[in-house]
DNA sequence: GTGTTGTGCTTTATCGATTAAGCACGTAGA
DNA sequence: TCTACGTGCTTAATCGATAAAGCACAACAC
């Protein structure tokens, strides 16, 4: 009868000692047998393996973490600001990617949302100092986030999703927002002959907001005066897209193309345009950015740039493992390609 | 100079011993001071608190978990079947709710997706036996899932989201799918006078699929022969909704109302109806179920029953804490109200 | 027959936090 | 003056897994 220890909730729990006692050896022998280290006879090794299987032994994560000084977990840190809440479908893609990579290595995924109540810096630091994760993936952080720099400086292995030019030493995975945004804009210019363009930006304290704005302006400039571009500041929210369009229509100025910095705003804008009786893409061509799900299901479907969120997350996680293992060698910055997904909102014939 | 230990990745780590040495006491005294237990003079207690703050001490989760026999984490277990993948927006709502409740108690959230490779039962058991979580939330499990029963029987505190009549002893949080589905059906019958109805079911190995089907049939029966109902089996996927409608139109039978068991299928069906030139809601009224985001953004908007996923998850987590703490008292089954969200697809005038 | 090498385990120490038990030293009561 | 008790810490043990070091015993060489 193995001496089962019990947890606080009264649950019996099989430890290595139970396995060892059943075979008649010490827990050290059992550890070596299961781990494949040390000198254990094949016969004993076999017996221990069988006993472990019979008892359903799984190593205690706490015991192992304490001894090995690594937890076998990675954290996804989500700064829960008003703009980027966990509830966005973007995070599902990210989580799917992280889970896939983590499962392949039998690593746990910890979801760490930073609450507003506790200070930002403290929130990051808790994960670091409690050593509950061996590394962290951070996404959608503001460029002004002070906690992020501290996190990277803390020495905890961190991989960022997105672009962080202010943190040149950080390992990151992202896309070329400037080029992608430029391409979206050029689609309206070159394919559809639109010339009176407006860009509704993202929040300009986020690098994606900054870069997509630059890409838009680059395209306008490259047109050599053929096209005109104006800017309206948004914040990635559907409401911001709607308001931007409403203010635009209110002014009565001529607009034949709108480049939204993301799909949520594009959808908001689309609703406002329809409400005002403007035809999309008849009167106005619009493009969005992200393709996290929304742009496919609207009417008309929104032409957009597909940001490969799941793939970014998967690769970020794989890189994180390499950083944790100390087997670097890969470049600090990985940029994934972005595809133009043509739908109806730009004026292209339905696929 | 505190003797900082180092983790495997070379990161300095502040332990209780470092705090204690700075003050000139043992780590036991420091533990008692910070924990408020034992007999420590107010002066020493103050000094220890200051030292801890200065050094940025945060308890090692592994050390604490090992000693206390509880990890300070809860797991969300997601059976990653072909039908319910992590990528669905439903999980964002669930994660948001769990995070909110867990953050309020300073508890970590572990995301545990069961990979297909490892056996189902083993996947559940890993979380249980490694004791990496003090409890688990399980959602969208099939009624036939053998691992679920084993999980509940294992003694690990578990709260289920959804209905599980086969597990009467399990603590669960859910909605009344039968009543809600009946109400959705009756909306088409009573408000819009539809009489030739079809129900596209969910997967019938999931209780939601079973119950929503029953609710539909109840409504038909209660109509006293005034309405006729037919069934088509689906699987909650957009493609299933499309196929169901296509087969329906192919047969050429008269249909003036379709009750889809969820919004994804409703959207698929909506596309098929539009492609066939049928007007929604002119020719056919449709209703969906869930309101996780999709039904709001389609054209027309899909009238649906709002399943309060985030609230369910939050309450499930709070109940899980009570189960973990052993402070029961609440009923084993919590049923939350479901609201009818009227949009355009049923024929109601636009809000 | 004595030293050498190898095998197969056990003993012991460690990771960090926590708590029961123990031990000085002081104060108060008889 | 001697005992009783309270205060404020320290010592030691524990949680579970792991690995270095140690210790019998066997097989082999010279």
Automatic annotation (TrEMBL), chains A, B:
Keywords: DNA-binding, Transcription, Transcription regulation. The keyword DNA-binding applies. SMART domains: HTH_LACI. Coiled coil: none annotated. The keyword Amino-acid biosynthesis does not apply. It comes from the Bacteria. Residues 14-68 form the HTH lacI-type domain. This is Transcriptional regulator. It comes from Frondihabitans sucicola.
């Amino acid at each position: 009868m193995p001496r089962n220890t019990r947890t606080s909730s009264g649950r019996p729990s099989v430890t290595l000692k139970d396995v060892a006692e059943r075979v008649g050896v010490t827990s050290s022998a059992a550890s070596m047998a299961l781990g494949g280290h040390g000198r254990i006879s094949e016969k004993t090794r076999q017996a221990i393996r069988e006993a472990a299987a019979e008892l359903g032994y799984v190593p205690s994560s706490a015991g192992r973490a304490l001894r090995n000084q690594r937890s076998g977990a990675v954290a996804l840190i989500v700064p829960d600001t008003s703009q980027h809440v966990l509830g966005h479908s973007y995070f599902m893609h990210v989580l799917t990617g992280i889970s896939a990579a983590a499962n392949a290595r039998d690593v746990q995924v910890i979801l760490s949302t930073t609450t507003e109540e506790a200070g930002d810096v403290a929130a990051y630091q808790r994960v670091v100092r409690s050593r509950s994760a061996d590394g962290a993936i951070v996404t959608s952080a503001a460029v002004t986030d002070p906690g992020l720099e501290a996190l990277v400086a803390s020495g905890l292995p961190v991989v960022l999703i997105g672009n962080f030019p202010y943190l040149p030493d950080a390992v990151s995975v992202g896309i070329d927002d400037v080029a992608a945004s430029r391409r979206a804009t050029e689609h309206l210019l070159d394919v559809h002959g639109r010339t009176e363009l407006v860009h509704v930006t993202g929040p300009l304290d986020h690098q994606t907001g900054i870069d997509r704005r630059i890409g838009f302006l680059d395209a306008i400039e490259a047109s050599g005066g053929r096209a005109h571009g104006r800017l309206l500041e948004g914040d990635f929210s559907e409401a911001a897209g709607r308001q931007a369009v409403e203010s635009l229509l209110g002014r009565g100025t001529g607009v034949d193309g709108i480049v939204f910095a993301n799909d949520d705003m594009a959808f908001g804008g689309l609703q406002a345009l329809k409400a005002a009786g403007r035809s999309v893409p008849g009167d106005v061509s619009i493009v969005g950015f992200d393709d996290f799900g929304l742009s496919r299901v609207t009417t008309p479907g929104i032409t957009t740039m597909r940001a490969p969120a799941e793939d970014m997350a998967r690769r970020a996680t794989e890189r994180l493992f390499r950083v944790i293992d100390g087997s670097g060698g890969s470049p600090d910055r990985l940029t994934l390609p972005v595809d133009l997904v043509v739908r109806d909102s730009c004026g292209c014939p339905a696929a």
